[in-house]
C-alpha cells in the first residue's frame, strides 16, 4: 500500500507548534476530521488519546504513530505532522518526538490495522527516510516524500 493512498496534502502539517502530546493529537484529530464527514475532531481526539492511555505509540528515534480503530470508517486514513520542536511522547527510548503519523482504520478490519502499523513502523525506522522528512520545508514537500517510492509500505 502506498502512503499516498492514506494521505491528502491537506492532511500534512509542517513545523506544527504543538508543545505537548495533547496539542499534537488535537491538531492531528482536526485535520483527520476533514477525511470523514461522520467524525468530529473531538471524537477522533478521544480515539487517539484513549489508545495512548494503553501505552505510548512513540516508536523511538523521534517518531510516533498514534492510531485507532473507528466503527463505520470505510478505508484507512492518515495524517502527518512534523513538529516545530520535539515533544515528550513517552516513547520507548525516552527521546522526544518530532515526526507523527496518525492513522485511523476501520474497526471491522483488525488485520489490515496491524499490517499497516507494521509497515509504517518499518518505514519510519529508516533513518535515511526520517532524515529526509526532517529536512522538508513545506507540507507539499513532505507529502511528496511520503508519497514517493521512499514512502511505500509493503502490501
Explain what the structure shows.
With 155 residues, this protein is α/β, with parallel strands linked by helices. The protein has one domain (3-147): 3-Layer(aba) Sandwich (Mannitol-specific EII, Chain A), CATH 3.40.930.10. The chain is built from 5 helices and 6 strands, in the order βααβββββααα. The protein has helices at residues 21-32, 41-54, 110-124, 127-135, 139-147, and strands at 12-16, 58-60, 63-64, 67-70, 77-87, 97-106. Strands 1, 2, 3, 4, 5 and 6 form a 6-stranded mixed sheet that branches. A hairpin with a 2-residue loop joins β2 (58-60) and β3. The radius of gyration is 14 Å and the shape is globular. The N and C termini lie close together (5 Å).
Q: How would you summarize the topology of this molecule?
A:
Layout: E1 12-16, H1 21-32, H2 41-54, E2 58-60, E3 63-64, E4 67-70, E5 77-87, E6 97-106, H3 110-124, H4 127-135, H5 139-147
Helix pairs in contact: 1-2
